[in-house]
Amino acid sequence: MSSPLSETVALIIFNGEEDLLSRFEDMRNQFEESWADLIVPNGHFWGRGVERPNRFYWIVFFKSDATLLQYIEHSARPSFRDRILKMASDLIVFYGLHTRPNMRALLLAPVVEVTHYSLKPPYTTAESDAQCQIVSDAMMVRKTKGLHGFSWTLTEERGGEGVFIGGWDSTQDREASVDYEDQDLIDVLEKGFNLTDSITMMNVVFQPHSTQ
Questions:
Q1: Which helix (H) or strand (E) holds 121?
Q2: What is the pTM of this model?
Q3: What is the average per-residue pLDDT within 177-199?
Q4: Closest by alpha carbon to 177, among 150, 141, 139, 148?
Q5: Where along the chain do the CATH 3.30.70.100 domains lie?
């Protein structure tokens, strides 16, 4: 079955220590108990940075903008949000993002490179969206070793931000993916970087949340 062209996503990125793992699992379990009917099947993921294991990612795919709104307006959400704030530091929260195709499938790759960036004025999310597609096409047409594909999502919040992900067989494949003698590819990548005001890149291992 092909993925929808757009899915409604909530994404939380935060820092935490090793002893946070059990509390984070409890939070995800509570979310499932309270709001599982609002999200798509197999649409709940979490991950940790490879180089920085204290960097955590939490991604939930909602059935629609309407079900996300149900979650946001639920009477139990304020106390749940407060628990997240107490658990996490350096918190970055996105609600109502719309992903490009295949993000859920790509999160199952052995390694996922997550690039979070803010746009440099006066660049727009529409320009960034177009450049993400150009980068994806350039990498895919070269049949890059170990590459599963790319997906991305953008928001107008905070002046414009984006999350661009690529699924890989290994960190080694990801690190060896750019041929620096391929000037056409370098030009494409540099144009993408030039749209950004700040950018962070992280190799992450994701897994579906399980209540087992």
A1: none
A2: 0.92
A3: 95
A4: 139
A5: 8-101, 104-206
